[in-house]
Specification:
Blueprint: E1 3-10, H1 15-26, E2 30-37, H2 44-50, H3 56-69, E3 73-77, H4 79-95, H5 102-121, E4 124-128, E5 134-138, E6 143-147, H6 165-169, E7 171-172, H7 181-190, H8 212-218, E8 227-230, E9 236-240, E10 263-268, E11 273-277, E12 283-294, E13 304-309, E14 317-324, E15 327-337, E16 344-349, E17 352-359
Parallel strand pairs: 1-2, 1-4, 2-3, 4-7, 8-11
Antiparallel strand pairs: 5-6, 8-9, 10-11, 12-15, 12-17, 13-14, 13-16, 14-15, 16-17
């Protein structure tokens, strides 16, 4: 029997998960802290210097916070599952000319799946994280829901669209109700938590220098051949260094000059071509999404008007969804910049997270 008063929280060694653990304990939950060991790399010195979430210093920070809060703390290795579901996909997607969203897959397969299994094995009903979002239950919809956090600048619901009803049912996100990140830091300072003013981590935990192409090149046996830059008419403009070095909308770092700004418009892995064009060529009104998951309803039947966003940092924009076989066609009222295969398109109804999918 799972205990609804017991919760396992993933502790990264950062301020958000630390304060989330504190809040849950104050709310009366029996809290167990777990740091997920996801990635082990030879370049550990860089991780130590910059405080990567899998570094020894971050694990120690999480341990010290747990000790200060008086909660049990464990470090559990999920490295094998992480490589299989997140890292291998990341490499394959880049080799296919796509730009993947590994944090979304990590949420789906690791933080709200593997960690949830661990929580259940410990008798805990809930798993919790320091993500900024609000979990609820809508009686009208008869569905568990995720809504945008009060702190809009830190809202992370874009990363949550792939969660199932069962995963959301067993999830707590206590930081979603805070209006500013500063409030969270003030709580950490008041409670004398060592991470109160620790900088937020910006890089992927397994690409510690933010050089995605280098990582892919070093972790694949497949060749990465050079190819041709072409324009929209197919005219050859020059030579590129390999499709892993480019993403849709990119202007800088092309390694070639044209006398005017040129942007990556399309990547064609079958012909090993990178298509360049003007800025206006980067805008698209339509896209197709695969692996679509809906939270507020089971399946899309009729055309559905909502708002969508094609990247984490962009604003939502009105769009209409159409079912086309197993895919969903998304038509935006206004053209969107740099619609990128492999990235997520995520749908909202006001504050409510409707769902999302992978741009195809």
């Amino acid at each position: 029997m799972l205990d609804k008063n017991k919760v396992v929280i993933g502790m990264s060694g950062g301020v958000d998960s630390a304060v989330a653990a504190y809040v849950l304990k104050e709310q009366g939950y029996e809290v167990i802290g777990i740091t997920m060991k996801l990635w082990e790399e030879e370049e550990s010195n860089y991780a130590e210097d910059y405080g990567g979430c899998c570094s020894l210093s971050s694990v120690e920070d999480a341990r010290l916070v747990a000790e200060k809060l008086g909660i049990p703390f464990y470090v559990i290795n999920y490295n094998e599952q992480f490589i299989e579901t997140v890292v291998d996909n990341f490499i394959d997607e880049y080799l296919s000319g796509h730009t993947p969203s590994p944090c979304i897959r990590c949420n789906k397969y690791i933080k709200f799946d593997e960690l949830l299994k661990t929580a259940h094995s410990l008798g805990a009903y809930y798993v919790a994280t320091g993500h900024y979002g609000i979990v609820g239950y809508n009686e009208t919809l008869d569905r568990y829901t995720i809504s945008k956090s009060q702190e809009k600048r830190k809202d992370q619901t874009y990363m949550m669209y792939s969660l199932s009803q069962d995963q959301i049912k067993h999830t707590l996100m206590p930081l979603g109700v805070f209006e500013t990140k500063e409030e969270v830091r003030q709580i950490a300072e008041r409670e004398d938590l060592i991470v109160a003013r620790k900088n937020d981590s910006q890089e992927l935990c397994f690409v510690i220098d933010d050089d995605y192409a280098r990582f892919v090149k070093e972790h694949t046996l497949k060749p990465i051949p050079k190819g041709k830059f072409v324009d929209l008419k197919g005219n050859v403009l020059g030579e590129h260094q390999g499709i892993i070095y480019y993403t849709i909308g990119q202007r800088k770092g092309l390694g070639i000059t044209f006398g005017k700004p040129m942007y990556v418009v399309e990547i064609r892995p079958k012909t090993n071509e990178v298509v360049l064009g003007d800025n206006e060529d980067v805008f698209k009104s339509e896209l197709y999404a695969k692996e679509v998951n809906f939270i507020t309803f089971d399946t899309l039947e009729a055309p559905y008007k909502c708002e969508g966003k094609v990247r984490y940092s962009s604003k939502t924009s009105p769009c209409t969804l159409y079912k086309e076989g197993k895919r969903v066609k998304v038509v935006f009222d206004e053209p969107q910049r740099a619609v990128t295969p492999g990235q997520a398109v995520v749908f909202y109804d006001g504050e409510l997270l409707v769902g999302g999918g992978v741009i195809e």
